[in-house]
């Protein structure tokens, strides 16, 4: 991974590099208003296996805004060798107008307070939170108990999650992969009462835990069929959230694990921060004749189409190590003899996956509100797709293997895609009644829009792990 120290050193390198200084002068820009940022170089099919750790550096222009990402300085390609901390290649190809600073700033003092702005809101728990944190890692809340850990690459790791039931306990382990920068490494300090509500408890600096009540109903019923009685019972939907925020350059990722009283674990990722844009000669859509694979989101500013995929490593040990993966399909059954006045019914057809290839499922569009199960739009032989081969299917199941921890491979930076979930699965191993790992991938095809400029409203995607015929009754009761 790229360490923070390496990133800082890389970002400063061009500012004292003579050819770069003259490129800035040539563009009529002020050097003191320039800020640079390193990005992974990727892999595009080069045969030679590079042992050099390197990054590509892109520079931006401040001069009147704090939102540097909206003002890329185009036409310059800088490659930095990290271990040597030197500029290995420098090319100044062409001059493109730098997008305007006007209207890009997001600091409060520069913005006029709108009269429509809403009053402040507070969530209070006069008796304090109802969860406890033992040894700094074990959370107990209602019938739930789980362990929260921090990992440099994965960020939050939830393990040994169990929900007390007279007979059953439910165990879960999850990892989050962010191989080039590290989600944990990029975790940022949370701002009280804003990143997390006022009733949140913070584990040192970066993880917060809080009870969420958003005014929703978990369960209710009014019973008036019993003569002389009027019964009403309502339970508010209160859940427990474990949250971390990672800032990777321009993007901010919010990761939530939400534990519900119904036994469900909801996993959510929110994308916000600032879009990565390219400078362009275009100021109006009419001028664009060639394919730009982008939206013109402001004058001289193109927001490129791109994807975000998130893969969760769910090492589920439900009631022990030996687990199987069962696909449930809903099928229409037609009534052919005259056994019923009805013409059709529908039923559930279950099949247990024997090997890894049986368990690959393309969900297409998932109906979980706020969630998306996206399929890749790139061709299978495209290099980013080879490296991210695990995005091809939304669901994969593998037998547990200690070395198969990260869907994108142990070493992601400049990887050639030879150590991914897609490759391991080619062995088509047996997964029935085994210690299995469920991999779930979801994502978004991000088509930038004008409203993503100059700051991006949070875009959330999620999935739920919901108990199904696991508890003998609704644990809410
Ligand atoms: Cu995006």
TrEMBL record:
InterPro entries: Cu_Am_Ox_Cu-bd, Cu_Am_ox_TPQ-bd, Cu_amine_oxidase, Cu_amine_oxidase_C, Cu_amine_oxidase_C_sf, Cu_amine_oxidase_N-reg, Cu_amine_oxidase_N3. The keyword Transit peptide does not apply. Pfam families: Cu_amine_oxid, Cu_amine_oxidN3. It is an enzyme of class 1 (oxidoreductase). Residues 121-165, 168-363 form the Copper amine oxidase catalytic domain. PROSITE patterns: COPPER_AMINE_OXID_1 (PS01164), COPPER_AMINE_OXID_2 (PS01165). Residues 1-98 form the Copper amine oxidase N3-terminal domain. This is Amine oxidase. It comes from Solanum commersonii (Commerson's wild potato).
């Amino acid at each position: 991974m790229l360490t923070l120290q390496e990133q800082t050193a890389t970002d400063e390198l061009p500012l004292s590099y003579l050819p770069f200084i003259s490129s800035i002068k040539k563009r009529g820009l002020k050097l003191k208003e320039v800020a640079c940022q390193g990005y992974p170089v990727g892999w595009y099919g080069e045969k030679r296996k590079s042992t050099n750790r390197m990054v590509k550096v892109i520079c931006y222009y401040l001069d009147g805004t704090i939102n540097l990402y909206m003002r890329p300085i185009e036409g310059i390609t800088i490659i930095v060798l990290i271990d040597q901390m030197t500029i290995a290649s420098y090319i100044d190809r062409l001059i493109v107008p730098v997008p305007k600073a006007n209207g890009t700033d997001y600091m409060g003092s520069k913005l006029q307070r709108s009269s429509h702005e809403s009053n402040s809101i507070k969530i209070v728990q006069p008796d304090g939170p109802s969860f406890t944190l033992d040894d700094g890692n074990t959370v107990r809340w209602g019938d739930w108990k789980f362990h929260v850990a921090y990992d440099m690459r994965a960020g939050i790791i939830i393990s040994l999650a169990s929900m007390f039931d007279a007979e059953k306990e439910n165990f879960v382990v999850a990892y989050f992969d962010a191989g080039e920068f590290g989600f944990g490494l990029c975790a940022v300090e949370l701002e009280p009462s804003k990143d997390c509500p006022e009733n949140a408890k913070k584990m040192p600096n970066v993880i917060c835990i809080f009870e969420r009540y958003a005014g929703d109903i978990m369960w209710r019923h009014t019973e008036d069929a019993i003569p002389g009685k009027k019964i009403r019972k309502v339970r508010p939907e209160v859940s427990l959230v474990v949250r971390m925020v990672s800032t990777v350059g321009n993007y901010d990722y919010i990761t939530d694990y939400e534990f519900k009283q119904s036994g469900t674990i909801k996993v959510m990722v929110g994308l916000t921060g600032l879009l990565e844009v390219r400078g362009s000669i275009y100021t109006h859509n009419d001028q664009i004749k060639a394919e730009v694979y982008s939206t013109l989101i402001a004058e001289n500013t193109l927001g490129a189409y791109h994807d975000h995929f998130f893969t969760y490593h769910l090492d589920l040990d439900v009631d022990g190590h030996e687990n199987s993966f069962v696909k449930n399909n809903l099928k229409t059954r037609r009534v052919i003899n005259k056994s019923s006045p009805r013409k059709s019914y529908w039923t559930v057809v279950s099949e247990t996956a024997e090997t890894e290839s049986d368990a690959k499922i393309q969900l297409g569009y998932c109906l979980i509100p706020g969630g998306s199960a996206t399929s890749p739009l790139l061709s299978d032989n495209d290099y980013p797709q080879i490296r991210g081969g695990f995005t091809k299917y939304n669901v994969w199941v593998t037998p547990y293997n200690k070395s198969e921890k990260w869907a994108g491979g142990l070493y992601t930076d400049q990887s050639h895609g030879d150590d991914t979930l897609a490759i391991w699965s080619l062995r088509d191993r047996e997964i029935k009644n085994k210690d299995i790992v469920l991999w779930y991938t979801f994502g978004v095809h991000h088509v930038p829009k004008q409203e993503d400029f100059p700051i991006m409203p949070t875009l959330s995607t999620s999935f739920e792990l919901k108990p199904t015929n696991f508890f003998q009754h609704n644990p809410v009761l």
